[in-house]
Amino acid sequence: MRCRGGNGAALGDVTARLKSIIDFYPKHIKKEDELFFPASRTYFSEAEDQAMLAEFWELDRKMIHEKYKAVVKEFKAK
User: Fold this and answer.
1) 3-state secondary structure of 2
2) I need a surface site. Which of 9, 19, 58, 78 has the fewest CB within 10 A?
3) d(CA 3, CA 9)
4) What is the rounded radius of gyration, in angstroms, for the C-alpha atoms of the chain?
């Protein structure tokens, strides 16, 4: 809101926060991918693990399709 209102200092605040997110997320995702998820998967049987992965990939596939359907719908509305 401050930035929209013409407060020039707000842009610096937004930029600083975005930079902190840019620094944080790659390290966070790497930690999840290389440490957390592999360790957590050891608590499940092979069948449970594969079932969860299959559900994840299905959800991910649908989510991408839904996103782009919404984008196309928005373009058509314009």
Assistant:
1) coil
2) 78
3) 8
4) 20
Query: What pLDDT score was predicted for residue 55?
Result: 95
**Residue boundaries of the structural domains of the chain:** 1-43, 45-78
Rounded Cα distance, 30 and 38, in Å: 12
Write down the residue that tokens 């401050």 correspond to.
Answer: 2
Distance of CA 56 to the CA centre of its chain: 14
Residues 53 and 48: their CA atoms lie apart, in Å, by 9
The model's pTM: 0.54
